[in-house]
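[job 0412] stage=complex_fold ligand=pantoate status=START
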Amino acid sequence: MQNITSAQAMQRLVLAARRKGQRIGVVPTMGFLHEGHASLIREARVVSDTVITTIFVNPLQFAPNEDFTRYPRDLERDTRLAESAGCDVLFTPTPEEIYPHGFQTTISVGGVTEPFEGVFRPTHFDGVATVVAKLFHLTQPDKAFFGQKDYQQCMVVKKMVSDLAMPLEIVICPTLRETDGLAMSSRNVYLSAEDRQKATVLFQALQVAKTLIQSGERRRMVLEEALKTIILRQSGITIDYAAAADSETLAQPDEFSSEQAVVLLLAVRLGTTRLIDNLVV
Ligand code: PAF
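[job 0412] stage=complex_fold status=DONE, emitting structure tokens
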């Protein structure tokens, strides 16, 4: 596996690979890789000639009060995990490579960015869209792989790609979970042993709401109340949102039609840790 840090070297490598007719698969990450990331790399491996994993803790998507400086980092471990999952090129640019002096461009996607995360992290998706667009220009993927765990992010990236006619496909891969249901996330390391235990309530709440939908419940408020009631049975948790929405548009009708796929979306705070999860039914 090759490690590249320079933006120019990255672009040169992919342009040469493209000239040879190779299919490029890219897995954008912020590092501290876990089995969820490995599953994205493995998925990319199956359909690509060159698999690139990008590791960049993007300052632009963190608000000043968020966890940018303490975001976990372990490049040595990431290198081993990426290589054993089948990655060919690890792209680990510095902030200066991505945002050179004088950088002044922002990509701002409307609509799907507004609810949920958009309310609690109003600058977050501009940061995500801007860095993902830049990473796409540097790595020129045929396909880029994202985890469903960040559901709204997937919708935002898809919208950007479609609106700007970027010539690539976004592949959304299933969320990987621990055996007790907790969605894998680099941020899970922040949890104390007690909070780690409490965090399983997210998956339990999603399961109960899923069962309600499957037994015919289509009223949004009833589904959201069920999610909230279960989560708040656990002490020490506050809810940012516990919502049901249309899985494509993220619209929130009072009642879902029987054909509509519903996404259940959760964001909670446990101590100083913010966790998100979701389920499409
Ligand atoms: O999901 C992430 O890890 C990040 O938001 C991404 C897509 C790599 C952009 O920084």
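Residues 28-30, 58, 61, 128, 131-132, 150, 153 surround pantoate (CB under 6 Å).
[job 0412] exit 0
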